[in-house]
Each structure stands twice: as structure tokens, then as C-alpha cells.
Amino acid sequence: MHAVARSLASEEASAAPPVLAPAPPAAAQGPDLTPGSTAGPAGVDAAATCTSGADAPARPGASPAEQAGSSGTGDAAASTSSSTLRDGSSSAAGGGAAGSTGPADNQGASDGTSTTSSSSSSAGNGTGRIGDNGGRGGDGGGGDSSSSSSSGAPTGPASGAARAGARGPPPAPAAPFLMHSGASMLPHPDKAHRGGEDAFFISDPPLAVGVADGVGGWAEIGVDAGAYARLLMSHAKEEAEALLSGGGPLSPQAVLERAYYRTNVQGSSTVCILSLNGATLCASNLGDSGFILVRDGLPAFQSPQQQHNFNFPYQIGSADGGASDHPASAMRFELGVQPGDVVVCGTDGLWDNVFAEEAATIVARCKAQGDGPEAAANTLCRYARMRATDPKYQSPFSYSALQAGYMYVGGKLDDITVLVSYVTMAGAKL
Length: 430
Hints:
- This protein has a single domain, classed as PPM-type phosphatase domain (Phosphatase 2c, domain 1).
- The protein is built from 7 helices and 21 strands.
- It has helices at residues 160-164, 225-245, 252-262, 348-351, 356-368, 373-388, 396-403, and strands at residues 11-13, 21-22, 74-76, 79-83, 90-93, 121-122, 147-150, 176-186, 198-202, 208-214, 268-277, 280-286, 290-295, 298-302, 307-309, 312-313, 316-317, 331-336, 342-346, 406-407, 416-425.
- The strands form 6 sheets. Strands 4, 6, 8, 13, 14, 19 and 21 form a 7-stranded antiparallel β-sheet that branches.
- The chain is globular, with a radius of gyration of 20 Å.
- It comes from Monoraphidium neglectum.
């Protein structure tokens, strides 16, 4: 195993601040991005539905979340981190996660890093069912990394189908599934000097990943809006690794809740956490970050956004914010995966500017031409920035604005974090 560090060139980006003006009611045109909508080949377990979980408490009017969408000019920097899996063994390199607890540890600086590690997970009989709880659907620095190896990554809980057939002869052992992951970040140009307000993590071994988007409105009262997201992801990484070392199932919801109760700085954040348990992809998503499952170059499943109102997403945060939701409001999913699938997870800086079909096409093309997941994440991240700075682009954000009764055209300049994971069998080449 080895770590590869590389510097990504900074870029100049500017756009006029979004102006939302009331518009007469009109039916939005373009791709259907309604909550729970899916697109893709038949038989991809995309028809599963999510039942309602605990409702969040009523929230008072204005919130720091309503301040999202500011724009400006300046240098933007990107950094990447990857976890590349080989063999059937489980090994990982440290230092690849951007979830650290201070400005010095933030990966938004002009020098980016890329790390590689490996892990495996024994495949179960995943059925692609969605979990039994869900929320309301509204809308690291550079340097060398050391690596270590071990054998026998823990397996996830058996699916409903597997439990139903438990009375018969035991099935033959399935070949281990592997998850190769890489991430890329581009801060908003005006926030690049402090590393932006997004964060991500890849666990060690890399069987869990996550992204978080700090709510920018906290900056208006002198609070670093990215501090909460970074500390939340740092704690999520630690909790995921603790669950893995204990040999128990890797539950994204458990990781989210444990990290939430440990994060005690001011701020709030949206969050999306995923884990690979055998042949089942598990996810907990709260707010307008999210993920898609790509199969055969098409988006087979897209997680719906959670918003109280337009541009006002669900968020977890410190008690003094007075407007935070509870982790129990997160939407939870279980999806069956197979070799060749690609998972794309990102903050709203990605999904406000790139349609699921576009994201699927880009990562599938990158994979087909031999790019690793970190390279695919970087390509998609830069594509999102290009769209964000196009004032004439009919973006997903502009369609959402129109549906909410506002006239808005163009992309939405924001922090962008993209995390790409390739699913393969043990020993298979990317």
C-alpha cells in the first residue's frame, strides 16, 4: 500500500449572487427529481420505499440554513482522498479522511492529498429493501500515510430474504465484496481561505463513508460554519471504526447518532453516511446532501432530499441553534449492490448543479476509461463547479426554485464535495 499526494491547480470562479424573485405558478420542466424518484434498468431494487420515521420538532421561522447560496470570486482549491481495495484482505491507510477538527486539518487548501487503502466485506444475500425508518421527504492535509493489514472484515446483518431462507441448507460462502472509494472537494471561492464548510470521511478499513455540509448562516454571528461539519465527520470516522473493531454490524444510523452526541461545537450540518454490509449498501441521510446508486451507467436509485421549505434543509446541530432536527429524522435505506455498481455521495453543491443522469454518465465514463474513484470524484467535482458558475444553465436548483414559486436561472455556487465508490468482487480489477 502506498499514499499518493498530488496538488490540484486552483481555479478562478465567479458568479452573480442568486436573486430569487416571486414568479407566477408554473409547472417545472426537466428531469423528474421528486423525492423517491428513480431511474435505471429494471430489477435494480429501486422500487423499494421508505417508511416515515420520527418527525422533527416544529422549527421557528428563520434559520442559519436559509443563508445558503451566496457567491463570489476567488481561488478555489480541490483535494482528493481515495481508498483502493485489493486482494481479499483488509488493510487501510490513515490520514485519508477530511473530517478533522481544526482549520489546519481541513482539506480545502490549495494543496490536495490522495491516499489509498484496501478492505473487503463478505457478501450476504442483499435484497435491496429500504430500512424500516425514514424522515419526511420534502424536498486532511498532505503527508505520508502508513498502512496495515488484517483478514476477515465483518459482515453486515442478513437481509429479509436471507433470514426467510435460514431453515434450509446453509448457502455456499459468497465471495467478498469490495468498496473502492475516493473523494474530491472544491470550496466556495469566498470560503477557500478557511477551507470551505464541507467535510467527509472514509473509515479505516474503508467500509463506511460520509459527507457533511456545514450551514453557512452561522458565519453571520462569527461562528466558523465548517467547524461543526468537520468535527461531526471526525467523530463519525471514529465511531465507524469502533463498530468495525467490535465485530458488530456497521449501521450508518448508529454512526450518525453516536457522532451527533459527541459533537459539541456551535453550528449545524446536513449529513449522509453510507456503509457496505456484505452485499447490502446501508445509508442514513438527513437534509439535502445525498447519494445515487449507478448501475450500467444509469442512476438506479437517488435518495430524496429532506427540506422544511425551499432551500431550508433538515440539519443536525448544537442545541443553541434552536432550529436543529434530531438524527432520528434521517431517512434510512438498504439497497442490494452487485459488482460494477458505482455509488456517488455528495453535498448539495453537487446535487444543486448536476442531475443524477449527468453524474451517472460521468462516473461510468471515468470508470470505463480506467480512472480510479478519486479521479472520477475529481472530474465530477469540477464539472459541478463549471455548472455552478453558468448563469444561463437550467440547474436542478433552478427547477426546484420554480416549483417553489421563485424565478431563478443558473447554477448555484457553493462548496462542493463528491465521494465516489466502486463496488467489485475480491481480486477483480477496477
